[in-house]
Design brief:
About 40% of the residues lie in helices and about 10% in strands. The chain is of the alpha/beta class and about 600 residues long. The strands form 4 sheets. Strands 5-6-4-3-7-11-9-12 form an 8-stranded mixed sheet, with helices on both faces. Helix 3 runs antiparallel to helix 18. It is globular. Bound molecules: uridine-5'-diphosphate-glucose and manganese (II) ion. The site of manganese (II) ion has 2 residues, from loops. The site of uridine-5'-diphosphate-glucose has 17 residues, from strand 3, helix 10 and helix 14. Keywords: Cell wall biogenesis/degradation, Glycosyltransferase, Membrane, Transferase, Transmembrane, Transmembrane helix. It is a multi-pass membrane protein. One of its GO terms (biological process) is plant-type primary cell wall biogenesis. Its main location: membrane.
């Protein structure tokens, strides 16, 4: 696991072709490891100290401190997963041509989820879709599926508009080699001017106004719908149709080979899906939506590679799928590689980010840490999968027939009938969907839950962190949304803790010790609230009880003599600095020659 980084830093692979990717341990790894050993000693000393203090006098305060510090210590131990083998990787897209021709690239199905047109504005979801439809990827290999869990005709309307605008937008991006392919972000960035820029900009603004007007009004007037086929599509919204109770709606908006852009080139497939919802049938939230996408796409295109995106997360780099191919097309790649995860990077957050919406520790530090083990967890968006991982472990997946049904038109009656059938709410009942197949049910954080189960089955993953963010998304900006998200995540994470495959019990055995700890770190994340709450009230309680919570005893005499003489005594000898750590009950032992001027007093804080 460790040390391979250095040896992999060479320019050609063993088969003589230039390398597609490299991987190396980060330079801070040895320092991290030394730090971990030192820190572990201090934590043990601290817990020992609390324990001794408890023996001397058992008060509620000392019990609370012990509890708080025990939880902090546990969380710190689980976080070791991120520090032992932090890994960085590089890909070389320019070497892809040595491995495969464009026509040999695997097909790619993109899944975009949205759930509520009033919380996630359809125009944002449209921007997400346009940004991936314009990927630098062979168009005949690309399909985009939009899952609308809100079952809203407003979203369908937005996508009908998007399909028309895309026939102008895609050639504009490709001919002018635009890098920013999300139209909203492109026009906001003061782009360089091309002869068609003004025209395309006003087209975009017209589309945006139409979509926003319709959402504002909450209904679509007939003069907004130019096409008979489109009027028919909306006829499915009958009076009984509600977001929680409706039949499946699947609408093929663009079909490759049939629909052309304004320069006469093919358009990628674009399919709108709103799965069947019934009050008496569990929908399993996003995991349920993603499983319907897996099944419907299997009936239509069945691409071996899948990308999942949240509706609010657009592509910021048209070459992203090529980066993934650098791993997937490498013949020497571990066949157990199941998915490639890109970090979530958020835009529009103010500098101070008081709610930590950016989650930088997760995306900048922890994913690289997990990458050196069995691989990062899924983070819900920006994940490229091999389709087969949803159908069993690495040793048991049958090779699926990729040509199955793909020769038929996706608008054909047969294909559509099948697609509607698998989008039904009872289709997955009494099957392995959600337990052994597809995204796993049972947790609101389906991403962590599913990736944990996949890694237990033996699948591995890779963290891909290019300099230019591959995707940019939205994060809660106010306290209300932020608390809502935290509550939802906490419930979902506790569901992972209390499921029968708890990471501490199963994970450390089925994946590996450190990865298991890494998953435990996330699953036990709600437990941070225990020490936070205790430490929030501790000073006040101590004040009321007239007890001191900050200690006076000498750590050197307490720890060094009784517990761990080295390296702390060496440190004291070399530096002459005594570290003082005391006790809230009484002075345990006073050291003889403590030089007041060179004595550091501080409480020990974990992490
Ligand atoms: O029943 C549902 C619920 C949600 N979603 C979609 O799932 C995505 C994420 O849901 P959101 O409510 O925005 O949750 P967040 O907390 O913002 O999302 C983070 O956390 C989720 C749960 O871990 C992950 O799925 C996401 O990818 C990750 O960005 C959105 O696009 C929703 O439209 C559905 O399609 N159906
Ligand atoms: Mn979100």
């Amino acid at each position: 696991m460790g040390g391979e980084g250095a040896t992999e830093r060479k320019s050609t692979a063993s088969h003589g072709l230039p390398l597609l990717h490299t991987r190396a341990l980060m330079r801070r790894t040895p320092a991290n490891r030394v730090f971990a050993v030192v820190y572990l000693c201090v934590i043990l000393a601290l817990l020992y100290h609390h324990f001794i203090a408890l023996l001397h006098s058992t008060s509620i305060l000392s019990l609370l401190i012990l509890l708080a510090d025990a939880v902090l210590a546990f969380m710190w131990v689980t976080s070791l997963a991120f520090r032992m083998c932090p890994t960085e990787r590089q890909v070389f897209i320019e070497h892809l041509e040595h491995y495969a021709k464009e026509s040999e690239y695997p097909a790619l199905d993109v899944f975009i989820c949205t759930a509520d047109p009033f919380k996630e504005p359809p125009i944002d979801v449209v921007n997400t879709a346009l940004s991936v439809m314009a990927y630098d990827y062979p168009i005949e290999k690309l399909s985009v599926y939009v899952s609308d869990d809100g079952g809203s005709q407003l979203t369908l309307f937005a996508f009908m508009e998007a399909a028309r605008f895309a026939t102008h937008w895609l050639p504009y991006c490709k001919i002018n080699k635009i890098v920013e392919r999300c139209p909203e972000a492109y026009f906001a960035s003061n782009p360089s001017w091309f002869p068609e820029t003004d025209q395309i900009k006003s087209m975009y603004e017209r589309m945006r106004d139409r979509v926003e007007n319709v959402v504002k009004r909450g209904s679509i007037s007939n003069d907004y719908i130019p096409d008979q086929r489109e009027i028919e599509a909306f006829s499915r919204w009958t009076d009984e149709f509600t977001p929680q109770n409706h039949p499946p709606v699947i609408q093929v908006l663009l079909e490759r080979g049939k629909d052309k852009d304004i320069t006469g080139h093919d358009m990628p497939n674009l399919v709108y899906i709103s799965r069947e919802k019934r009050m008496d049938s569990p929908h399993h939230f996003k995991a349920g939506a993603l499983n319907v996408l897996l099944r419907v796409s299997a009936t239509m295109t069945n691409a071996p590679v899948i990308l999942t995106l949240d509706g609010d997360m657009y592509s910021n780099d048209p070459q992203t799928p090529l980066r993934v191919l650098c791993y997937l097309l490498d013949p020497s790649m571990d066949p157990k590689l199941g998915y490639v995860q890109f970090p979530q990077i958020f835009h529009g957050i103010n500098k101070s980010d008081i709610y930590d919406g950016e989650l930088r520790h997760v995306y900048q530090v922890q994913l690289s840490g997990m990458d050196g083990l069995a691989g990062p967890q899924l983070v819900g968006s920006g994940s490229f999968f091999r389709r087969k991982i949803f159908f069993g472990g690495p040793s048991e997946t049958p090779e699926m027939n990729q040509d199955q049904l793909t020769s038929k038109s996706i608008r054909s009656k047969e294909v559509l009938a099948m697609a509607h059938h698998v989008a039904g709410c009872n289709f997955g009942n009494q099957t392995k969907w959600g337990t052994k197949m597809g995204f796993r049910y049972g947790s609101l954080v389906e991403d962590l839950h599913t990736s944990y189960q996949l890694q237990c089955e033996g699948w591995k993953s890779i963290n891909c962190k290019p300099k230019r963010p591959a995707f940019l998304g939205n994060s809660p900006l106010n306290l209300h949304d932020s608390l809502n998200q935290t509550t939802r995540w906490s419930v979902g994470l506790l569901e992972v803790v209390f499921c029968k495959h708890n990471p501490i019990i199963y994970g450390v055995r089925f994946i590996n010790l450190l990865s298991g700890l890494g998953f435990a770190y996330y699953a036990f994340w709600p437990f941070w609230s225990v020490p936070l709450t205790i430490y929030a009230f501790l000073p006040q309680l101590a004040l009321l009880n007239s007890t001191s919570i900050f200690p006076k005893a000498c750590l050197r005499s307490l720890v060094f003599r009784q517990c761990i003489p080295f390296p702390w005594s060496l440190w004291t000898r070399l530096s002459g600095v005594h570290i003082i750590w005391g006790d809230n009950t009484k002075v345990v032992e006073q050291s003889e020659n403590v030089d007041d001027e060179r004595t550091l007093k501080f409480p020990i804080w974990v992490d």
